[in-house]
Write a structure and sequence with these properties.
heterotrimer; A alpha+beta (699); B mainly alpha (582); C mainly alpha (190); A: 699 residues; alpha+beta; seven-stranded antiparallel beta sheet; seven-stranded mixed beta sheet; 17% strand; elongated; C: 190 residues; mainly alpha; three-stranded antiparallel beta sheet; 48% helix
Chain lengths: 699, 582, 190
Amino acid sequence: MDTYTNKSEKPKPARSALYRRAVLDAFRKLNPVSLSKNPVMFIVEIGSAVTTGLTLQALVGQGEAPAGFIGAITVWLWFTVLFANFSEALAEGRGKAQAETLRRARRDTPARKLKHPQRDAPSEQVPSTALRRDDVYLAQAGEIVPADGEVIAGIASVDESAVTGESAPVIREAGGDRSAVTGGTRILSDWLIVRVTAHPGEGFLDRMIGMVEGAQRQKTPNEIALQILLAAFTIIFLGVCLTLLPFSIYSVRAAGAGKPLTLTVLIALLVCLIPTTIGGLVSAIGIAGMDRLIRRNVIALSGRAVEAAGDVDVLLLDKTGTITLGNRQAVAFIPVNGSSEALLAQAAQVSSLADETPEGRSIVALAKEKYDLRAPSVSAGGNTYDGMTFFPFTAQTRMSGVNFNGTEIRKGAPDAMFDYLRQHGQPPPAALQTIIEEIAKHGGTPLVVTRNGEPLGAIHLKDIVKGGIRERFAQLRKMGIKTVMLTGDNPLTAMAIAAEAGVDDFVAQATPETKLQLIREYQAGGRLIAMTGDGTNDAPALAQADVAVAMNTGTQPAREAANMIDLDSNPTKLIDIVEIGKQLLMTRGALTTFSLANDVAKYFAIIPAAFASTYPALQALNFMALATPTSAVLSAVIFNALIIVVLIPLALRGVPYRAVSAAQLLRDNLLLYGVGGVIAPFIGIKLIDLTLVFFRLVP
Amino acid sequence: MTTLGIAQIAICLGGLLLLVKPLGAFMAAVYEDRRTWLDPILRPSEHLIYRLCGVSPTEEMNWQTYAVAMLVFNFLGIGAVYLLQRGQGFLPLNPAELGAVAPDGAYNTAVSFATNTNWQNYGGETTLSYLTQLLALTTQNFVSAATGMAMFAAITRGLVRRNAQTLGNFWRDLTRSTLYILLPLSLVLAVTLVSQGVTQTFAPNVMARLVQATQTTSGELVTHQTIAVGPVASQVAIKQLGTNGGGFFNANSAHPFENPTPLSNLLETVAILLIPAALCYTFGKMVGDTRQGWAILAAMLIIFSVFLGIAVWAESAVNPIFAQLDIDQTLTDAHPGGNLEGKEVRFGIANTALWTVATTAASNGSVNSMLDSYMPLGGLVALVMMQLGEVVFGGVGSGLYGMFAFVIVAVFIAGQMVGRTPEYLGKKIQVYEMQMAALAILIMPLVVLGLTALAVVTDAGTASIFNPGAHGFSETLYAFSSLGNNNGSAFAGLNANTPFYNLAGALAMLIARYWLAIPMLAMAGSLARKKKTPESAGTLPTHTPLFIGWLVAIILIVGALNFLPALALGPIIEHLLLGVGV
Amino acid sequence: MVAQLNSALRMLGVMTLIAGGLYPLAVTGIAQITFAAQAHGSLITAEGQIIGSTLIGQPFAAPKYFWGRPSATAPFPYNANASAGSNLGPTNPALIAQVQARAQALRAADPDNRAPIPVDLVTSSASGLDPHISVAAADYQAARVARERRLSVAHVHALIDQSTTSRTFGVLGEPRVNVLLLNLALDATQ
């Protein structure tokens, strides 16, 4: 269950092809119907259309200004729209490529629809698109799973690489936590009877395609709020520019000099003032945010969840798999009642020979390492070896062991073993109880080992906390996020692990009900909760949590209840998801700030130029010493267009996120994007002006 | 700027700051319905009022009900003021025997006083009877201020309450604002002002024999001076405390009977800023974190101080045209100097500029000098203070809840920059809040610029302009900046008592008052329903110097930049053409 | 809505009674007891006749009187029933012309005085009723008044000092000369 590092097998479109398609899409997106969803850029498009008309008028000789000037403004206004479209198209590009791959998996496959959920029930061949919810079908080795569903009978190995990119096959079987199958995956062996859980077009794969393509992209709440703010600014600036014409008419009359403003300059001013930078990049930022998740193999089933991830206050983390490695390891043998450590080690090793669990293997390994006890190899699944009879762990006995040469070795959880000892007329010795408590206090799990009904001692099994996780939690704390560990362990063990891992809080002996209860409590206190889950019994908690990440290996109910699916099934990824959510918001905030701060310079470029004929004295406001009014207006418009292109990489990559406090983040970002946003255009516009003058592109 | 000038400003602002905490804490107690030291005297009257009005003070209102109560009460007030003006000729307490006010002018005045604008298109002493001044204007001075304060209380409760549907009771907030805050303060201030020479009498105007006779412009001999007096102090006290600003006399607080001494000037200046400043503390107290209140006050003071500096500098400057006439404009110990046209000798430059910035920052609008005669940049400061949306102090109550709209925008952008759904005081700022804040912020520039545009291209608008050139443009821009922000001060050369300005102005005042108030109330209703997110290291801090600076930047960029083109064609070009030297 | 209307009507009535009736009456009552002279307008009487208010300026144009601030009230200067400023902007040619005319009048009345004219003597006040001029403005006129009245300049200066109010607490406001009181004092010396 390693992370997303080895995903090179996923087809990546060639860079040039991506750009070529984005350029074409940029033109396609000029369609006013689609553009009207973005009020800022729609206004720019209308302005461009008007100046195009004015250019034509000027060309036939009745223009309000030289055709060259109006024409140049017009060209750059169109560029402004195109650049914005291009950014969006580019952001969609990568998602589209992935959608292609997914879509190939979704091709129409024949399905064997069953009358009853039995393997030998009468069946009919139907196209997968004809399957409805609650239909039952049979899928056999070599076939493509025709629709999402839940396994109700059978067991099979399934290649899910089409969806997850993970080439190792997974086991799917009825009941338990591995019962969900996804349409488009391939059965490798055996067979499954599956009940359909989604109508055609609504399946998991369809939703994924929709999400990655951006076609179904719903604007997220913060994005809508931002659009409202941008629309408000746009309306204000529209008012500012519209009223400037009457103002200039009055001024011309009052000063007795000059001419009223031209429509071209007014439109240029309007486009420069309205927040085109953020307006042009806002959808690219949103799409790129989703794309960053996809590249980490997380599919968000709603954009809202991605933003909510940034808001999360509390992470509920399952101990196993997230905080500790999935398995415990033996770290010590502690003898009791005069038994020797070597004896205990040997007995423990022998009893674990047939135990293929990681714990069992770690006992064998520890014994070998400590006493160089070379265990005879045991064939997998075999019950006998050299006269040994193994008793595997069962839910009834809650112990495992081996019989050989009249010796009976047993090992198991303390309470089960104490019962076993009592049955053999042996009250559990007090010393053993002390040892067990000691192990538990240090976060370990004790296993008691007996020989012939006599206690030999205990094995200390220890949870291994993942490397680097402590530092990760410290970062989260700095970001103001509380981590809560959930574990089925007893409180003593839980406390020790919690301390070792550095979580803020823990819940021991957690059940699905306590999880749900905990989430509700936190939410009532105004907190936003993120959690991961995979089992069916996690589903209610997942549904309740604000950000719920289901493991792709999880059950269908868990996946239905979640709002994100982690294809790698790596619970630690929740932390990445939080960071991506934050990054998405930060990028929007930073570019909004930059966009607004830019206006200061643009005012000082355009206003002296606009009224140069009426009030030449206003040149005192021309701080940038721009060469001529024409070049001043043109430079501002060109800067306004080019800055979108310059910022596309930032919009797609996102503002770098660092785990520091909000106060520090704000300071750094304000300095960079706020102060930088005020200064940059002064320099940029001046440079463009110098260039225009140098190449004699302006009169 | 002279040392004494700075000292006077420091005394005024220092005194103000000393009063912020005690008054702010007192007002918090009033709005949280806690016991105050005035209870023994006022509690019985308070309950009597509820009984007389048939209201149940404990009945909680949701934002819609609150808004309806507020609007109904305000519109009734407009009706009452209108009728009193129209009928004053037949009513008592009219010793000067003044007739009915013209319908358009009366309507404008009615709207003006009910909306806490107190724009005056009339000369008080020659237009309104004592009865009208008292029953209509003084009453509205109280209740329009109390309305703003009630709205503030309700909107603040939206931030305080969680999972709640209601914001309080309008009648209770109105009554308590008037009874516990405005009345006691006014009473004390009014009597103090009388001690300085402000008149307070119901006697008719006084005839005084002139020491040296003079002539009218048409050459008639004048031997007597009719000295207008009246119940001035009671009205002046509330006009300053309630950020109303409507004077008893035409010259407003430049008139020696409204503002006779430097001490009365100091008290009135403090009174202008007192409640808006103290409400910041009240706000902090109510939300349970006084740092939040101080932060907002700090942002206000920063903007205030910067523009005050510009105004004092501009008005101390030498008018180069006068300098050519061998006129002494220097500031000395024996001589106020500077631009004294339209200013009174007793106040001098620093006090006058301080007043002007205070009265335009707070949406008061009373003047102790004639703004139309200001140097271009001095006038620009007054314009900008209003065009910021009257949020730097602003009207009592309304300034602070107008400020909330800017805080919401600042929090929204900054909150995103720290990677969280923005929240203010634990309340998430989401789509609905943004819609309301956007509505509140966008309407003002549109109204001000739109009506100014209409005025400068129509004959009805340009006919009223008094001064020529760019200054004439400033007059119109000033009028609608003032009306569209419920300020009430004027570049008074503009003849605003015309049907066009009366009606357009009334429209601007109504929009400015209620279009701002209702979205903010709606936002509060939505915020009250929300949960409160506990603070953590990931929470955007809204009390730090950094955030204060950011808020200031947002106010300046969102508020002031919109007006830069218009200002360039008015005061800025006038300044550049004048070539001012210092 | 109807309930609100009912409450609103009654509330407006009660508020009018309190704010428009009781409050001004209370202020008037207290003021009449504590500061009766100020409450009535700080009036000056001579021989049983009101001849002005210490707070309201009067027009003076004769060379033997100190002149106050120019007044923009209509229809005659210092009309205390119609306070007003000129509202002329700083670049308005009309303002320049007025200032020029006032400067000429001052110089014509006192041709020997070559000092620059203090700005308060040529600019109209905000209220049109400003009772004060600056000390510099009084000093500027002292020689003229002394000559017209055949008084010593020192005596006139002494009278100026008598009519001068210094800064309140040494800080607030400007030192200023009450023109009406000064002129009354002048008249009284003869």
